[in-house]
Amino acid sequence: MRPPRHSLVKRVLKNTYNPYAEASGCSTRSRVPDSQMYGVGEPSPGRADRADSAPALPVRSSAIAENAQLVPKISHVGATECYPFNNMGENLEGAYSDSWESVCDEDFGEVKLVLAGKGETKTLLVRRPSSAQCCVIDWMNFTLSEDTWSKTAGRTLISDEEYLEEASRHFEKIFGFGVTTHRGQRLNFYTDSWVLGDGMGFVGFGKQNRTMLIMLSGQGCMNAIPGWEKRLYDFLTQVAVRPSISRIDLAHDDFDGSYLSVDWAYQQWKDGGFNFRKGGRPPEIQKLGNWDRPSGKGRTLTIGQRTSSKYFRFYEKGKKEGDKSSLWGRAEAELKNNNTIIDMAVLLNPSSVFVGLYPCLAQFDSRQTPVRLVVKARAQSITIEDSIAITKRQFGKYIRVFRALFGDKETLDFITNEDENAFPKRLKPFLSFADSGPVPMHKETPVNIPEFIFIKSVPVFRPNGANGFA
What we know:
three-stranded mixed β-sheet, single chain, 15 strands, ten-stranded antiparallel β-sheet, alpha+beta
């Protein structure tokens, strides 16, 4: 059988996409890539992959589109109101929301995108309406081109110190802390690294396609000056050169364990709460800790694989901090850009992304997660009580005898560490704040080098081995 002619194939494709062009007012050429996206190119009635009881898809306002029976492209779904974008009570300025008439669970999930440039398939995480801020950002990695700092400085920077000082100046405006200590170690394939603030994260710089890596840890997210999400969003979208979010963690806390626990998460997995398609294959899970006979050390349930773009953890946060009777539960999503596009808008409204990750998380859309300062205070109280119990159990007998022999003051002088900057590792996060720690690089006093060290004359060599300065 002879293969069809190219002109015939082209005519068939043209007739296929003409209804889309007429309904949208676009050319047939512009509709071809969109037909490869989820929810586009299929008529609404009679879809085989939708549940029979599922409500109708959102309806387009255009009558022409309705007559053509086009399915709207479901890539982002916004809340119907403008809610605070963080737990500090600040609203997103100039934000607007999309309104949709009806959406079912099967309309959410991950949208597959085909990038024409390299032919790579990327996944776009879908947002879902959320009536409350049910999560906070607990970790964030992002990269940007080193040309960003030449742009902000208004001149061409040369040395690594110039780049780091310029970056430190802007980080202090955004987070409240800048670049401080030089680590002198490799970090995520970057040749050198520095500390961000008082242990608030790290900065990697050197090679790697002339980019800079900024790692904002959970401690940094907790202690940054309120409103840093909006300031960072404005900087990355309006100032930075080639910015990209490589990782972001979203966390939700339930202090009382009234609705969130590892047992609840495991039951949801068995009931298909992590499946977007009816009868679909559930994601891989792993149980960590003593589930058969809980010992009070805490249990963890992981959803997905650690190396994948979407990895979820449910764990007993209070028990992890040291309180064996605590019911404090945490749900934590780790998102990476391995084959997923992480939109910058997640900084402004992370809750809409959080509740759209799995169907069972839609139950959290009206749950308000505790503010960062309350979380820090709760963890601090549990950790201090546990630290006192450990000290009393391990060294209490020695301290009691020393008090009887030498008195209270002498005993404290004997057993206290002489280094004023020495802190137990588990207590250090509660003693660090945005304005604590070393002085940022851009505020350090420059080293004053005496002028006599520099040679201002050119040496002249004379005959017979004599030499001197001109």
